[in-house]
Design a protein that fits this description.
Strand content: under 5%
Helix content: 55-70%
Shape: elongated
Number of helices: 15
Order of helices and strands: HHHHHHHHHHHHHHH
Keywords: Membrane, Transmembrane, Transmembrane helix
Distance between the termini: 113 Å
Largest sheet: none
Number of strands: 0
Structural class: mainly alpha
């Protein structure tokens, strides 16, 4: 190996690069005695099976299950989206910061929405923090279906639940009248308790139900006759219910009269009338 020196760089006076050796490989490398190692013979793996070939019929079962799952998720999403106006009205109804007029309008919309079932209406109308008129319109929207699922339990609940406002008990007695027209039987003991209620509206509705039960009891009709012949505030209500009781066996005509009696309560019942006379609110 030879050493070579380099002249100093022109920009670095007096400085030299270090001396580096130049290594040259041998021209004839010695390969004597070198033996290549033995290499194994590797055979290629067989072709991999596809998922369909590997799992057979289970593959299609899995695809079907996945399709069903996607369909259920889509159905749930569509249902939630289609009920968005219902959720909006429920939110407004329970929002204490909203004006009472808006909350009553939301309750009215829910009472007219067929997607809100009878159980939901029952639960909402019993919530005391809600505006009274909002509870009223939802209680008024209950039908015979509400009382028909459990006639005994419903009648006893209406008759014996404490601390209910009078207007609420009147409205919740009504569904029994509609159900009785359809042939649903209610326990006489609960109806007798309602007939003896100090409020004449409750007593008249309960008396009408008694007239539809095929009981050998003349007290129900007598209460209606006495009310219709009297001069109290309940006279018109008693006459409507008395006429409906005499149309037994003609359910369509009976229910038409019951609808009139329901509407009559808004403007004439002593406990209901003040609710509908609030400023900014009017009977829909």
């Amino acid at each position: 190996m030879e050493s070579h020196s380099h002249p100093p760089h022109q920009n670095l006076p007096g400085r030299r690069f270090p001396v580096l050796p130049i290594v040259t490989p041998d021209s004839t490398p010695d390969t004597s005695g070198f033996i290549f190692p033995g290499l194994p013979i590797v055979t290629p793996d067989p072709p991999r099976l596809s998922q369909r070939e590997k799992y057979g019929a289970l593959f299609y079962v899995g695809l079907f299950g996945l399709a069903v799952l996607i369909g259920l998720i889509g159905w749930f999403a569509h249902g939630a989206w289609s009920l968005r106006d219902v959720w909006s009205n429920v939110y407004v109804l329970h929002d204490d910061s909203r004006p009472e007029v808006d909350r009553v309008r939301a309750a009215l919309a829910l009472s007219r929405d067929s997607r809100v079932n009878q159980r939901q209406r029952w639960d909402i109308c019993l919530r005391t923090p809600l505006p009274a008129l909002a509870r009223y319109v939802l209680a008024e929207s209950l039908t015979a279906e509400a009382a028909s699922a459990d006639p005994r339990g419903y009648a006893l609940t209406v008759a014996r639940s404490p601390d209910w406002p009078v207007w609420l008990r009147v409205l919740l007695t009504r569904p029994m009248a509609y159900a009785a027209v359809d042939g649903v039987k209610f326990p006489a003991v609960a109806l007798e308790e309602l007939k003896g209620n100090p409020d004449r509206g409750i007593a008249l509705w309960a008396s009408f139900v008694l007239t539809q039960l095929d009981l050998n009891d003349r007290a129900g009709p007598q209460v209606l006759v006495a009310g219709c012949e009297g001069s109290g505030w309940e006279r018109e209500l008693a006459c409507l219910l008395l006429e409906a009781s005499r149309l037994k066996g003609r359910p369509d005509e009976q229910k038409r009269l019951l609808d009139q009696a329901t509407a009559w309560l808004r403007a004439h019942h002593p406990e209901s009338k003040p609710l509908w006379s609030q400023p900014g609110l009017k009977s829909p």
